[in-house]
Amino acid sequence: EVSAEDWAERLDGRQPVLLTHALESRGRWDPRAWEEGVLGHYGQRVVAYSTRGRLTTCQSYAPLSRAWQLVDGSSHARPVSYMDEHLLEGEVLDAVLSRVPAFMRKDYFQEEGFKRHIRIPPVCFSRGGRGTRSDFHADFLDWTGWNVLLRGDKLWRWWRRRPEGDAAFAGVRVPRLKEAHPEGLAAGWESRADAYAEVHGENPGPGRPHSFVPRPSPDAAPGAAWPEPDFETTQRAGEMVVFPGSWWHQVYHYDETVALASQYCNDRILARCLAHVLEWCGVGAAAVRLLLARLGSEAPEVQIDEALRLALATRLQPPEGAERERRRLEAQLGLAAGALSLSAHGPEPPPPCLGEARGASGSRGL
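Below the sequence we write its predicted structure tokens.
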């Protein structure tokens, strides 16, 4: 059993962790009955589902009840999956979130200070078929991610961010939160690598002989070696994985699965999440460090409000509007004029990015 103290001091998103009975601290729970309730409530709603090819993903539409049936026809060669960040609401959503371990419930993303500027969906509902795998990716906002499996078996692999891995994966930035601006307010990483490109073995699954052959990204440098994962685990029904979202990761579905994915931002990583938004929106790294150091003694609500106001002004306003916001913040924090300027030599160029995700699973593991 994990205590709140142990979680805060040793675990809490520092490395991948597998929790058993994660939704049963308040007593036993019937995930099958909950799934049937979801289908009963939303079964006729038209949703998007994905069919993955070798390098591209095709998106189609059908009522949720029909999409559920189509996923059952998934295979390794033609995997089918469904993910939806906006389906669940009200009592259906609360029935799950109210069972999340108490030491994981602090989440600034879902508090008013953050939601005033940026809205992050609280949970992603997913259905994976046999042979489905997520895109090979690292999440945006540098959050702590979690994924609870309601039925089925999945294989997870994670890679720390290292130069040799980045060379083999050849990831590109993918803008997220693009409602207000086409370049987004944050950005994840995606790669055309596939850790599960080929599977060898009859009826692969936990406890049965099988192996995977990875495919490095076709964008990788010649001769880039495929690195072994730093962490790997098989997740079974009722188990939750909690992990650093900024690590590279990819998931493989051994059979039909139903899962819920989410994330949180607590005191331990608040500055990291704010830095992500500030830097992606164009505030220079040195200015970000100075700003967050000065804000560090303020209440979290103040840190969030001031950091996101500057980030959004930099991204969304014309140069004179962004300059006014910087001058206001410099005066308020007692900083020298120009201390929060983007750069002494003008705005820093953004890193290479893709305009759109390749598939529905780019922002999270299925």
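The two ends are 26 Å apart (CA to CA).
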